[in-house]
From TrEMBL:
SUPFAM superfamilies: ACT-like. Its main location: cytoplasm. It is found in: Cytoplasm. The keyword Cytoplasm applies. It comes from the Bacteria. Keywords: Cytoplasm, Repressor, Transcription. Residues 5-82, 88-167 form the ACT domain. Pfam families: ACT_4 (PF13291), ACT_6 (PF13740). The keyword Cytoplasm applies. PANTHER family: UPF0237 PROTEIN MJ1558. This is Glycine cleavage system transcriptional repressor.
Length: 173
């Protein structure tokens, strides 16, 4: 079996996920996990599948024929990483340009891998300006203390609130 990671982007429309799942199924693939969203009228998704080695090339061909989608398929290289602790991080602050860049740069400097990232901007009725929130799932190397990460992130700006908590489940789905 081959482990594939497939990214997809294109104009959102009904039936798109069904077409993707049918294509994977028709090529004897097992859909292991995915994250998909509609952003500004576009569909963006990433999924992982296991598929028989002899089905990889036909799957690539079939995916390339799906109308209006840009698709990239990568094979997992099975790189083993050193043990890491999974932590959930929430960053909240006044919305401004550069928050994601600043936080992700500092995380990279600390050798932390971002497993998941979701962001949102929403109005704060009592504050009069928009609030930015980012939710991260991080893989923190065992030799890096969470307290060090929190201190480094809090030093980025006075208006950022940094909250850590252990994930409810460390299993990948």
């Amino acid at each position: 079996m081959k482990h594939l990671v497939i990214t997809v982007i294109g104009q959102d429309r009904p039936g798109l996920v069904g077409a993707l799942s049918d294509t994977v199924y028709q090529h004897k693939g097992n859909w292991l996990g995915s994250s998909m969203s509609k952003l500004a009228g576009q569909f963006a998704g990433i999924l992982q599948v296991d598929i028989p080695e002899e089905s990889v090339k036909p799957l690539r061909q079939a995916m390339s024929k799906l109308d209006g989608l840009n698709i990239h398929i990568a094979e997992d290289t099975k790189i083993t990483a050193p043990p890491a602790q999974l932590q959930q991080l929430t960053v909240t602050g006044n919305d401004r340009s550069g928050i994601v860049k600043e936080v992700t740069t500092r995380l990279g400097e600390l050798g932390i891998n971002i497993h998941k990232l979701k962001t949102d901007t929403h109005s704060a009725p009592n504050w009069g300006y928009p609030i930015f929130t980012a939710w991260f799932e991080l893989e923190i190397p065992a030799e890096v203390a969470v307290s060090t990460v929190q201190q480094q992130l809090e030093s980025l700006a006075d208006d950022l609130t940094i909250d850590f908590e252990e994930p409810e489940s460390s299993e990948a789905h």
